[in-house]
Amino acid sequence: MFDSITLVKIRGALKYIVLYSIFELGRAHGYELRQYIAKLFNLKYVPSNGILYPTLHELEKEGFLISYSEGRKRVYELTSKGIDYIHVNKQEIHSTIGKIRTMFSIINRLNIDKLINVVQTLWEKNVIIPNHVVEALSKKVLEIIEILNTQLESNYKKCDINQ
């Protein structure tokens, strides 16, 4: 589904998001970060621990964060290296966050989140979808992809004309 370059981009974007979120919050534990990120992108769900904590541990290992226990919670703060990184990469971080906001806005407007929920429910209930239904759905999805690709090509042509 994703190639290795795409996964590297996602991990890089996630690092930006986590660093930016901690920068904005000052310090935070995992639950606060998940809530902040969900609010930042107007998500109907919060990012999973399986995504967040490996990123936090990696950033800590790289020296961008420190963590300490506060009661039963692990609290994360930026180090001076993390703060410097935010300042140096501020423009790219804001650009990345803007692109991700746009992407999630499109996903929400296209109701893709609802589609994912239905597919997940079908999977959880072990519902077998007949081949003719899958084929009909596949055709509809390909139509949507064609419409979006047409928009993409149109955008590229506009960029070429303006240059």
Automatic annotation (TrEMBL):
Domain Transcription regulator PadR N-terminal: 19-85
A Pfam family annotated for this UniProt entry: PadR
Domain of life: Archaea
Protein name: PadR family transcriptional regulator
The species this protein was found in: Ignisphaera aggregans
